[in-house]
Amino acid sequence: MSKPAMIHVTYIETTPEKLWEALTSAAFTEQYWFGRRIESDWTIGSPVRFFDSADDSLTDSGEVLVYDEPKTLAYTFKNETQTDAPGRVTFTIEPAGKNVVKLQVVHDGITEDTVEGWRNGWAPILANLKTYLETSRTLEITFS
């Protein structure tokens, strides 16, 4: 039996370098991650912290596992309000044409009963990332 994972693949009209910047720059992440700012020095073993721009509270945290610019980024990921063990998020970037990249996001190390919740959480973030890189605007998503 395979272990549970959330897997998302999308194609984005951008360069690997610009996508890498979008994943690792605090100012960039705040634009498409619905006000969350991701901070790290991106050295393997260093902390990764997610802050809510509304009150600067720590919402999620992790530790850098892989930093292979601009191909693979991986870190552990734990929501600060949950008691589950941290999962792992891996971003894989591959050229897929002229100014097109394939982005695969795998969130594993999670439980079967949380896969759908993670999928629902990642979907708008990744759609917003794609839209922002391609149009320089964000989506106006209403969460219910």
From TrEMBL:
InterPro entries: ASHA1/2-like_C (IPR013538), START-like_dom_sf (IPR023393). Residues 14-134 form the Activator of Hsp90 ATPase homologue 1/2-like C-terminal domain. SUPFAM superfamilies: Bet v1-like. CDD domains: SRPBCC_CalC_Aha1-like_GntR-HTH (cd08893). Pfam families: AHSA1 (PF08327). Belongs to the AHA1 family. This is ATPase. It comes from Kribbella speibonae.
